[in-house]
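pinging the channel bc i need a second pair of eyes. not urgent but kinda urgent?? the chain im working w is below, pasted from the shared doc
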Amino acid sequence: MCEVITPMFLNGADGQTPELRAPSIKGAMRFWWRALNGHLALNELKKRETEIFGGSGEKVQRSNIIIQVFPKGALRTSIHDLVPHKPFMKANAFDLGDVFDVKLILLKDIKDEEDRVYFDFEHLKSLFSLTCYLGGLGKRVRRGMGSLDIIEATVDGGDKVEIPRPIELKFILGHIEKFSPFYQVSGEKIIFIYSGRSPKYGYITEIEMGHSYSQQSVVLKKISDATHTTKEKHGYAYDSSMGYASKGRYASPVYVSVVRGSVRPIVTTLNLAPNRDANRASLLIQKDFKEQIL
């Protein structure tokens, strides 16, 4: 059972009406699965991704994951600030406190050529958890919107899964380790320690957890202000370190989500693909942005 803890701008086909959609959840999970596997060669990554999520290349591959969504009662929607530092930018969103169930089904365990399982139901559960905690659903998800809390989880038979409160880095790492052995907690962050050559795409390089805020609206405003302040300070440069929406589009490689209880932001930094060897200026822009939030 999931609860919306920051406004969730997840829309249907018209792009404006809030709608819970299983394909949106699966798409987010696919994104985070890819981000967790920076140690895989690109060909192997694509092969495994197709086996798990399906594909439409030379041979159509059916997805081995089925996701079903069940709202708990009537979900409420209202107008919220889409970009808090720009009060004129508002949109309809699912409200804080809206609750819905997500049923996860894995059709079969997925194995490599040596008959070793690399994706089973435990992986599926952890992937969904990381999708909720590191990201979320809908528009502005990279800036704290659409954050979800898993308030209750059960497996077949009705056994409940214990979810610690508050969420801490070691709990996040426990889920990540199911996918990659190349992450560890170092100080106040989780870091990627793979020494090989990673492919040029957006895999996770580090995860940091910030201090507690008084309430969700305060941390959302802080995230939005930090975005504006950082870009203003650095001359609104169209730099891949923060992403940009004009002169072409480049999605920000920095995700900020919010966890319940302590109302702490989690900042997840992805590799600066396609610029594998990010220059020092880009990294300093990222550092400036993150320090304002953490």
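so Residues 202 and 271 are 5 Å apart (CA to CA). and Residues 2-293 form one domain. — does that match what u expected or am i reading it wrong
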